[in-house]
Amino acid sequence: MQTRAAPATATPLERFNTAPADEAAQTLLACLNSRAWAHRLTAHRPYPDLPALLAAADEAAYDLSPDDLAEALTAESRPALPEDTYAAAHTALSAAHAAYESRFGHVFVISLAGLSPDETLNHLLAAIRSRLINDLDEERLVAAEELRHLARGRLISTLRGAGL
């Protein structure tokens, strides 16, 4: 696809649609570090609106191969806790993360969108503990779904702008 420069008044989505492929891919890789996912979304530009891009992103995320999923998981970091979280909670969470990473070989991923800071710690601890009992295949599916949610939220944040 031939790209053209977006006008100065272009929306973030218009700039994404008209950006050179490597620039668009870098934007996408910041949302989900899967080259296959980024390539697929870049190749299908232009998107008429943000909901169309989000639908395409969801579909591409559902189609991640195990290798694509592993690639995406390597770039993820542990979820952040509110700054005022007490030391014992950090200790408990560190132990839970270590157990998870030992069992599954990658960082624990979870979308915490929509949770208040007061709910974050309890939700995070409950989720990691409940997912530790998953078998490898089941956890791969859960992690993929959480990555899809994270990518969707990051895309919205990245491309939110006037007219979107």
SSE layout and pairing:
Blueprint: H1 12-18, H2 21-29, H3 35-43, H4 50-62, H5 66-74, H6 87-104, H7 117-131, H8 136-159
Helix pairs in contact: 2-3, 3-4, 4-8, 5-8, 6-7
Descriptors:
UraD-like; globular; 8 helices; single chain; 164 residues; mainly alpha
Note down, in words, how this protein is organized.
With 164 residues, the chain is an all-alpha fold. The chain has a domain at 77-143: Orthogonal Bundle (UraD-like), CATH 1.10.3330.10. Helix content is 63%, strand content 0%. It is globular and about 50 Å long.
Structural class: mainly alpha
Q: Total helix count?
A: 8
- Helices and strands, in N-to-C order? HHHHHHHH
Question: What is the CATH superfamily label of the domain at 77-143?
Answer: Oxo-4-hydroxy-4-carboxy-5-ureidoimidazoline decarboxylase
Strand content: under 5%
Q: What's the mean pLDDT score?
A: 90
Low-confidence stretches: none
CATH topology of the domain at 77-143: UraD-like
What is the level 1 CATH name of the domain at 77-143? Mainly Alpha
Roughly how many Å apart are the termini? 23 Å
State the CATH architecture of the domain at 77-143. Answer: Orthogonal Bundle
Biggest β-sheet: count, sense, barrel?
none
Report the helical percentage: 55-70%
Radius of gyration computed on alpha carbons = 18 Å
